[in-house]
Structures are given as C-alpha cells and as structure tokens.
Known about the structure:
Layout: E1 5-7, H1 13-24, H2 34-42, E2 51-58, E3 61-69, E4 73-78, H3 85-96, E5 101-107, H4 111-119, E6 123-124, E7 131-136, E8 151-154, H5 161-171, H6 179-186, E9 196-200, E10 206-215, E11 220-228, H7 237-251, E12 256-261, H8 264-273, E13 276-287
Parallel strand pairs: 4-5, 11-12
Antiparallel strand pairs: 1-2, 2-3, 3-4, 5-13, 6-13, 7-12, 7-13, 8-9, 9-10, 10-11
Amino acid sequence: MSKPVIRTYKDSSDLKRMQKLTQAIWSLESNYHIGDLAWQRYRHAGREDEWITAIWEMNDKPVAWGWLKLPGSLMVQVDPHFKTLSMDIINWFDKMTETNEQRVTVLETESHLISALEDSLFNPLEETPEVLSKISLDSCPFPVKLPDKFKARHMKGSEDLTNRVAIHRAAFHPSRITEESYLDVMNAYPYDPSLDWAIESPNGEFAASCLIWFDEINKVGLLEPVATDPEFGRMGLGSSVCKLALNALRDKGADTAIVVCTSPKTHEFYKSIGFEPFAQTKSFHRFKNTL
C-alpha cells in the first residue's frame, strides 16, 4: 500500500484541503468543524508569517494535517483510520519549532492523538478545559421577543461591515478584528450572510450578534463568534440573537448546532438556551530541553 505524502501549500488551498478532511471525518468525537478553521484563519489579518501548515495526503486525499502557530502551539487532526500519522505530525511539529515549550490541545475523545502525545512525553496541563456543547434543532423555532424599537436581521453583505466589526470589538475589547479581516471572513467557505445575525438598537447600531457556520454535508452548525455590546447587557439580547440564528440554521436543513464554551460563564449562558455538554478539551505540553 502506498504511503501518505506530506505537502505544504502557499495559498488558501491548504485551508480548503484541511476543511475537506475535517468535513469528511466530522463527528461529536472530533475537535474541529469547518467553521473553526475558517474563523481561526481569517479573523486576524496579517498573521500568515506566524503559521506553518502541512497536510498528509493519500492518493491526493487529505488524511491528516498539522497547523503550527508560532512559536510553539499545534492544532492537529488525523483521520482515525490513519492514526499512525499522529506520531508523524508530532515529529514534524518538533522539527518546526525552536521554542522550548510545545503545546497541543485535543478533544478528550481523540484517543489516537492522546496516545501519541503521551508516547512522545507530553504531559497534561492543569488548566480549565473548553467545553463543547450541542443542541438539537428539533426545539426550533425559538420564540423571540425583542425590547421595544430593537430589530433583528441577518447581514446584507459588506455594507454591514462597519457595524459588524464594531459590535465584535465592543464585546471583545481589546480585539484584533478589523474591517479588512472580517471581510476575509465573509469571503471564506462556508460563510453565509443569512446565518450571520445581529440585533439593531434604536439608533441603528448593532447591540448583539451571532455567526453560525453551516456544514451542509453533516447538517451541523457551529456558533462562532457570539457577541453582546456591554452597553446593552442584561437585556437578553445575546440569547435572542442566538435563537434567531439557530432558527435560520434549522431552515437551512441543519439538525444540530454546536458551540465551544471557553469559561463556566459561557457554559451557563448556552445551557440557558438549551445546549448540553458532550465533550471537553485536554491540553498537553512538553519542554524540548528535557527530551
């Protein structure tokens, strides 16, 4: 049997091939959704020099990939049918990094990656894991009642760019999101403006927003990101904009939505909508000078 070939790409074709694998093997036991990769790649402009990607292919089909974020953090995905490649990616990661500490985060269900990390003398990190939660869209449509004179709608396109970036920067201050980078997001697969929702305040500014990335093949959407301007906090707008986007996602044919909760506070927020946890991340590290 032929062996996988490692390839690097100098343009956006690497992301498309990485997404191809992510979509092909997606399940609730895998760490990434195609929307994850698009958001991670395009949300910040001018970071290309901080990244190195490599893709392992079999008969021109991607079966594994590594995405190194300098100086020493690795995102990795391996088709479980080619689990021996997990060690190959770790060795590649080691060769490509110069920093002493190396870090990798995987999902607790990705046993093939965890075994390779442990065999490579990576140790678990004592830190709060991210919690992945899901919701069945059988509960849609969610009823939503907005405060007086507030309106909700999806994005029309680049004409909404200024307001769309402003709400994100207000919610996540300080933020590196710019109009240039969010325009890149809008041009990325599988961005869909009809799944990028906002609630407008009476003065026409966006008070809350929710973007959902839809994987049509697996019929699952990913919420990333969700934002509420602190000026409009405690009005239920964050929950409302998520419900409106979820309703639109169901109309597209999705049957499930997922979200990554990065803190106990966000976990409780999504739990109030109806999301239930199904997995959490595990982070590992090692120091090169101890190998």
